[in-house]
Amino acid sequence: MSSPFYVAPEQQMKDRADFARKGIGRGRSVVVLHYADGIVFVAENRSQALHKVGEIYDRIGFAAVGRYNEFENLRQAGIRYADLRGYSYDRTDVTARGLANAYAQLLGGIFSSGGEKPYEVEIIVAELGTRPVDDQIYRLTYDGSIGDEEHFAVMGGSAETIAEVVRGSWTDALALGPAVRLAVSALAADGGPAAPAREIGVDALEVAVLDRTRALPRKFRRVAGERLAALLSDAPAEAQGTPAPAPASASTTTPSVPEVELPDVPGSPS
Amino acid sequence: MTGSPSATASRGGLPAAFLRTGSSSFVELAAAVAPDVLPGARSAPAGTTNLGDLTPHGTTIVAATFPGGVIMAGDRRATMGNMIAQRDIEKVFPADEYSVVGIAGAAGLAVEMVGLFQVELEHYEKIEGAPLSLVGKANRLATMIRGNLPLAMQGLAVVPLFAGWDEAAQTGRIFSYDATGGRYEEQAFFSVGSGSIFARGSLKKLYAPDLSVTDATMAVLQALYDAADDDSATGGPDLARRIFPVVMIAGPDGVQRVGDEQVGGMVDALVSGRRTRPDGPEAPVV
């Protein structure tokens, strides 16, 4: 009968990290960056149904790479956390910082507990502030470490190579079109500067924005199909949501709805 | 309705129940993790029957369909017995991007239930990645009212009116409820609350299925005026304070609110018409 091996803690952690990294490295990458009106998520994803990017709350978005069942589980847990918190307190009390902390504790706990395999995921939690300087992007890795990223964040297989490309061309207050094109060109150059850039079409991309100009309280919106194609081809900017007037409030938890102007109203001055 | 220890056990920063693959319902989640936040978790000692005196009562809500969707409007009064508890309460809310809900009955409980209903719809949409159908939303609301039955029997009935744009049928639809959670689809127009009898009678004469959005809005404003005319618990337009009914429209472009300035202009026209004919516009006899 064999006795159990002694494995040094350093070695154990290293093995677990290697295992997680290998799982993450197999998947395609995700780029999240600031643009003029908010934050844009660009993922390479051939599936139209299995999303890598999702909405958590009014101003909070989620992106992930790695094992689908694991990050989908985390996404749903995040929605449950946010909705329960917003319902018990107030919608403004749901913050990306709180959620990122909860994720970090969960991932860290699982990574260092011997009983379970570590999650093979990396996630980004991004929050739209009221002003551009308040925007936040948190990046979390499989071991629960958490980074507060400036300007942009990249995760997935060739994150370093892709981040180099983004770093080279990112500027403050990019319009949405150039921001998406920058992200796509970076994703396409994941083979390194020596390799030719790959071709990534509309149907292999998943794009979503947290859009500050959106009138409704929920700022998350997917960009797909023709609108995405227009952004990629630098077509003349289609109506990109003119800044809406401050909407009227008539609600407890969903604070506002846009106003409408009725035609031919009796008694109106015109 | 009580959370089992395993449901509330925390795992890292997140309760273990959050990580379990479960239903897409926020109400079911809250019942497992934090049952005390739900309105249905509370109950008064058996035999209590007059809880209705504890909270203000909301009064009249009117809804009417038109070719481009459905309009819902509510007066602004909440009463406690013979007192006016609030003169600018809002009782019509967006439930989500394509539907609205108006409330009559125990105001405290009703507003809480609307908040819960809004989160329920949003939660489902985020978890599933697609919104519920309009009938699905109406059924969810019925389930929530059914859960309130014990309190309704003690005098805290909540009677909502639900309406929205049905994307599949490309039409506006209205649903009414009773205190036991019964759900009834209404045709063309409907009204709930203490002044609803008068409002419905008024709309019966003014409504036509092909009204324009402006005319349909005017018709529901007239109906609310008629309700306030004969029901003391329904508030008429407050011309001195410029407090007017809340009017929301659910159509293919989503839920929109008619601005107070426009409603004010329409109410001014309505009131000046009533100066010459206090009973409102005349309908032909045959």
Secondary structure blueprint with pairings:
The complex is a heterodimer of chains A (270) and B (286).
Chain A lengths: L8 H17 L4 E6 L2 E7 L8 E5 L2 E7 L1 H21 L7 H17 L8 E7 L8 E5 L5 E4 L2 E4 L3 H11 L6 H13 L16 E7 L8 E4 L1 H8 L26 E2 L10
Antiparallel strand pairs in A: 1-2, 1-8, 2-9, 3-4, 4-5, 5-6, 6-7, 9-10
Chain B lengths: L4 H4 L1 E2 L2 E2 H4 L6 H8 L23 E2 L2 E6 L2 E6 L3 E3 L2 E4 L5 E5 L2 E8 H22 L5 H13 L2 H5 L4 E9 L4 E7 L5 E4 L2 E4 L3 H11 L6 H18 L15 E6 L2 E5 L1 H17 L10
Antiparallel strand pairs in B: 1-2, 3-6, 3-9, 4-5, 4-13, 5-14, 6-7, 8-9, 9-10, 10-11, 11-12, 14-15
Helix pairs in contact in B: 4-5, 7-8
Architecture overview:
- The complex is a heterodimer of chains A (270) and B (286).
- Chain A has 6 helices and 11 strands.
- Chain A has helices spanning 9-25, 68-88, 96-112, 159-169, 176-188, 225-232; strands spanning 30-35, 38-44, 53-57, 60-66, 121-127, 136-140, 146-149, 152-155, 205-211, 220-223, 259-260.
- In chain A, the strands form 2 sheets. In chain A, strands 8-1-2-9-10 form a 5-stranded antiparallel β-sheet.
- In chain A, strand 5 and strand 6 form a beta hairpin.
- The N and C termini of chain A lie far apart (95 Å).
- The model of chain A is unreliable at 238-255 (pLDDT under 50).
- Helix content of chain B is 36%, strand content 26%.
- Chain B has 9 helices and 15 strands.
- In chain B, the strands form 3 sheets. In chain B, strands 3, 6, 7, 8, 9, 10, 11 and 12 form an 8-stranded antiparallel β-sheet that branches. In chain B, strands 13-4-5-14-15 form a 5-stranded antiparallel β-sheet. A two-stranded antiparallel ribbon of chain B has the order 1-2.
- Chain B is globular.
- Residues 1-7 of chain B have low confidence and may be disordered.
- Classes of the chains: A alpha+beta (270), B alpha+beta (286).
- At the A-B interface, strand 3, helix 2, helix 3 and strand 11 of A face helix 2, helix 3, strand 8, helix 4 and helix 8 of B.
